[in-house]
């Protein structure tokens, strides 16, 4: 109750009594009247209507209504409410002072930590570059040694393949020389229909002579040229012929039955994977740090299935030295990435507007929940607001941190979270968070005043103001 109303109340009550005619006659009110006891205005239509609106009964001076003066009781209740509010404000303000002191200390520590880390980062940068040089220096002789080993192995494989090819050729000659006269004739070669050149199912004498270079028969010394022409198609008589694969018709694909008379109703909530993908995260994965194992025995050849010969001791020593250089480099480079991330995260935190005295910094990286009959609401200040069904289901983003949006005299009374999950045929969800003074930090209520626009009530000591001296006495005439 304002002091002016209280003085007006005293003046009119003591000097002129309780005659409302004075108020209207002297132009104090026209279409409404003033309750002297409370300083509130009531419409003229409610004067003498049989209902007591003023606690001191002055509005029913001529209605005959039996009203009781309840100003004292109302004053006592008002005093209790004001006392509780004053206590909460006082305790909350004291907590706010502690938050400011802790914030100041914490920011100084973080700024000092960033300074130290940036200095250490310079040294780590130099170490990484030095180890990079060591690694590259060690990898060059390793590469050359591996290439020499691989070349020797390829030559050895080529010799092995040549020996195997000669063995197959000798075996084929013996199989084709049916009369064992030491020659393979046109008729003997003609018995292998798989050598048919034009794929008409018949191996003609002309085709065989073409394979044999026009000769009527060849011995072991001249069979090599014939073998070059037939070895890709030749099938040894000693190997059983593989049965042709049986083609099975593909399973019949049944068209789904669609009921054109009904259309599924889309869910209102579009489920969202946690973000993230975050601007502050590097495209770095743990697997990037893994290096190939130091295998002393090379992998098997994919061509013939034979294992490559083990590296000789000198080559293996070069591989071991290069691998150690890689491990040292990867370890230091990983440490550098982690330090970069730490510096970036602290600098991001320090860049936020946490209030005039950083009193809101304690909310950073914290989350607060409110459970209703249907949902679990989660507020993570300076990050996001979300909603999740109480009995299972995907989480819905109700908005990510936008800005302080309070009135001009104190913008830190309202938080705005925007660009949440889109509503079905509607806008993206957003949330307005109203902050009120309280001893505890807690979400007290949540609602959806408009479709896809949410409202949260959030108490925190960070918004408590220093309490002013308050007159907690009741405003009834009996107290005057």
TrEMBL record:
Protein name: Glucosidase 2 subunit beta
Sequence ranges assigned to domain EF-hand in this UniProt record: 164-199
Entry keyword set: Calcium, Coiled coil, Disulfide bond, Endoplasmic reticulum, Metal-binding, Signal
Lineage of the organism: Eukaryota, Metazoa, Chordata, Craniata, Vertebrata
GO annotation terms (biological process): liver development; N-glycan processing
InterPro entries per the UniProt record, alphabetical: EF-hand-dom_pair (IPR011992), EF_Hand_1_Ca_BS (IPR018247), EF_hand_dom (IPR002048), Gtb1-like (IPR039794), Man6P_isomerase_rcpt-bd_dom_sf (IPR009011), MRH_dom (IPR044865), PRKCSH (IPR036607), PRKCSH_N (IPR028146)
Molecular-function GO terms, alphabetical: calcium ion binding
Domain of life of the organism encoding this protein: Eukaryota
Annotated stretches, region: Disordered: 234-311
Pfam families: EF-hand_5 (PF13202), PRKCSH-like (PF12999), PRKCSH_1 (PF13015)
Chain segments annotated as coiled-coil in the UniProt record: 100-170, 319-349
Sequence ranges of Basic and acidic residues compositional bias: 287-305
Originating species: Sinocyclocheilus anshuiensis
Domain MRH: 365-466
Cellular component annotations (GO), alphabetically ordered: glucosidase II complex
Gene from which the chain derives: LOC107703311
Biased composition (Acidic residues): 258-286
Gene3D superfamilies in alphabetical order: Mannose-6-phosphate receptor binding domain
């Amino acid at each position: 109750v304002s002091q002016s109303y209280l003085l007006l109340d005293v003046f009119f009550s003591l000097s002129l009594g309780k005659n409302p005619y004075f108020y209207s006659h002297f132009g104090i009110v026209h279409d409404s009247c003033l309750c002297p006891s409370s300083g509130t205005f009531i419409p003229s239509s409610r004067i003498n209507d049989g209902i007591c609106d003023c606690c001191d009964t002055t509005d029913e001076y001529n209605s005959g209504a039996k009203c009781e003066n309840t100003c004292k009781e109302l004053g006592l209740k008002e005093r209790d409410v004001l006392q509780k509010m004053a206590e909460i404000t006082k305790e909350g303000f004291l907590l706010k002072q502690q938050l400011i002191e802790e914030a100041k200390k914490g920011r100084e520590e973080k700024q000092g930590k960033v300074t130290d880390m940036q200095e250490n980062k310079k040294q780590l940068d130099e170490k990484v570059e030095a180890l990079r040089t060591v690694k590259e220096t060690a990898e060059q002789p390793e590469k050359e040694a591996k290439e020499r080993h691989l070349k020797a192995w390829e030559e050895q494989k080529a010799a092995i393949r040549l020996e195997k090819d000669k063995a197959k050729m000798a075996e084929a000659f013996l199989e084709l020389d049916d009369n064992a006269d030491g020659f393979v004739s046109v008729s003997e070669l003609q018995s292998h229909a798989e050598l048919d050149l034009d794929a008409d199912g018949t191996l003609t004498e002309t085709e065989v002579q073409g394979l044999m270079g026009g000769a009527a028969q060849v011995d072991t010394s001249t069979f090599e040229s014939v073998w070059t022409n037939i070895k890709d198609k030749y099938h040894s008589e000693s190997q059983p012929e593989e049965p042709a694969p049986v083609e099975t018709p593909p399973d019949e694909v049944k068209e789904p039955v669609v009921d054109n008379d009904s259309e599924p109703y889309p869910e209102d909530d579009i489920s969202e994977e946690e973000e993230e993908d975050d601007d502050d995260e590097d495209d770095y994965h743990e697997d990037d740090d893994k290096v190939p194992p130091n295998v002393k025995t090379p992998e098997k050849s994919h061509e013939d299935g034979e294992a490559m010969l083990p590296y000789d001791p000198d080559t293996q020593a070069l591989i071991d030295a290069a691998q150690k250089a890689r491990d040292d480099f990867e370890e230091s480079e990983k440490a550098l990435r982690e330090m970069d991330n730490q510096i970036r995260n602290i600098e991001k935190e320090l860049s936020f507007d946490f209030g005039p005295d950083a009193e809101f910094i304690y909310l950073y990286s914290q989350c607060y929940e409110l459970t209703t009959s249907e949902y679990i609401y989660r507020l993570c200040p300076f990050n996001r607001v979300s909603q999740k069904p109480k009995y299972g289901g995907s989480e819905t983003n109700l908005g990510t941190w936008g800005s302080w949006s309070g009135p001009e005299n104190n913008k830190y009374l309202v938080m705005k979270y925007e660009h949440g999950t889109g509503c079905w045929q509607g806008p993206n969800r957003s949330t307005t968070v109203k902050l009120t003074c309280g001893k505890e930090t807690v979400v007290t209520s949540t609602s959806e005043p408009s479709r896809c626009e949410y409202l949260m009530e959030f108490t925190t000591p960070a918004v408590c103001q220093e309490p002013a001296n308050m007159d907690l006495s009741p405003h009834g005439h009996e107290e005057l």
